[in-house]
Amino acid sequence: MSSTPDFATIKAGMADVYERQAEAWDIGRDTTLRERDWLSRWLEGLPTPSALLDLGCGSGRPLAAYLTNLGHGLTGVDASAAMIDRAQSNVPRGAFQVADMRQFDLGHTFDAILSWDAFFHLSPGEQRAALPVILNHLKPGGHLLLTVGDDEGEVTGIVAGEPVYHGSLSPAEYLNILQAEGFADITYTPNDPSVLGRYVLLARGKGTA
């Protein structure tokens, strides 16, 4: 009989996992840029250059590197200092800093905000609290792109052989939160095979609905 994972312990140790495994994660990261179509949809209608925020940027590649190569200004934040060190080296045209997406204030707003394979490391309660903080950093008319889960709950994943925590709200709750912010166009795409079955939430045009 399988036992329920100790989610609290796994979550508490996750920051140390990324510090220990930054090199392995960076080397093993898929850089084929299968996310390209989603990035194009996220950026559609925005000027070049735009001010972009990558939350949970990891080592900066391939996403931050791709976005700066398109000519955009990019700020990346991550809770792992080891990841930020790698991002600064990998993407010299980006601006990177250690920050916790649950509580941060960068002092300015962005045309678009991305959190690919990072926002879902927060618990459901943390996500509810963090979304207003994140959206406060998004300009009117701005766009948001997140990977999330299939329903409210907690599961575990693996990074370089070590367990990490994943959490999610329900699709309906995400949609309610984003509709309340007045996004003009919101799509939730479950189990997208083009990005290996990820659940993708895209909201465009904040406050323009």
From TrEMBL:
Gene3D superfamilies: Vaccinia Virus protein VP39 (3.40.50.150). This is Methyltransferase domain-containing protein. It comes from the Bacteria. One of its GO terms (molecular function) is methyltransferase activity. GO terms for biological process: methylation. InterPro entries: Methyltransf_25, SAM-dependent_MTases_sf. Keywords: Methyltransferase, Transferase. Residues 53-142 form the Methyltransferase domain.
